[in-house]
C-alpha cells in the first residue's frame, strides 16, 4: 500500500530510486509498478485483452511471448478459441493457478521496474506450484521485487528476507543466515516442511 501510494506513511518515508514516493504522482508511480495479488481479478473479455491490460499497445506476438514466459501458453491454446476465448467475470472459468499465471503474463508484458507479489502463490495447488515458480523466476529478472508470502518455498532464494511480527521487523537476512541460527524463520520453515510431509494413510 505504501510503495504504490494507495496510502501515505504516517511517519518515516518510503523511497524509490532515492526519492520519497510522495514526490511522484500516483499515475507516474504506478506506471513503474506491476502487482500480482493472491486474489487475481480478470475481466469478462478475451484472454489476450486480459493479458494486455497493463500494456494495451502490445502486439499479439508480445502477448504470446509473455504467456510463454509465464508458463500459460499451452493451457491458453487448449481453450476453445485460444487467445480469443472470452473468460467469465472474475476469471470464473479458469482454475486458481491458471488465473495466477495470466496475471503474471500481464505483469511481464507491462515490464515495470518494480514488482509486488502479494501472496501470489497462496492459493496454488502443488501440481501448479512448480510452473508458477518458473513464471516468477522469469518475471523477477532485472527487477526490484517485493514478495509478501506465507508459502515459504517461494522465498528461499531471495536476496533478503524480513520476518514481521506485530507490524515490526523481527528478523532479517538470507535464508541460509536465518536457518543457521535459532530464529522464528527457521521454526516456520521446519513446520512448513513437516506439513509438506503429511500423508493420508488408509
Task: Describe the protein's topology.
Blueprint lengths: L14 E2 L2 E2 L5 H5 L2 E5 L9 H5 L8 H10 L3 H5 L18 H15 L3 E5 L7 H15 L3 E5 L12 E5 L2 E6 L1 H5 L4 H13 L6
Can you walk through the features of this model?
- With 202 residues, the chain is α/β, with parallel strands linked by helices.
- Helix content is 36%, strand content 15%.
- The protein has 8 helices and 7 strands; from the N terminus they run ββαβααααβαβββαα.
- The protein has a 3-stranded parallel β-sheet, with helices on one face.
- Helix 3 crosses helix 5 and helix 5 runs parallel beside helix 6.
- It is globular and about 55 Å long.
- The termini are far apart.
- The relative contact order is 0.12.
- The model has no long low-confidence stretch (mean pLDDT 85).
Task: Summarize this entry quickly.
This protein is α/β, with parallel strands linked by helices and 202 residues long. 36% of the residues lie in helices and 15% in strands.
Secondary-structure element order, as H and E? EEHEHHHHEHEEEHH
Report helical residue fraction: 25-40%
Shape: globular
Question: How much of the polypeptide forms β-strand, as a percent range?
Answer: 5-15%
Q: How many strands, what sense, and barrel or not for the largest sheet? A: 3 strands, parallel
Attribute tags:
202 residues, alpha/beta, three-stranded parallel sheet, two-stranded antiparallel ribbon, 15% strand
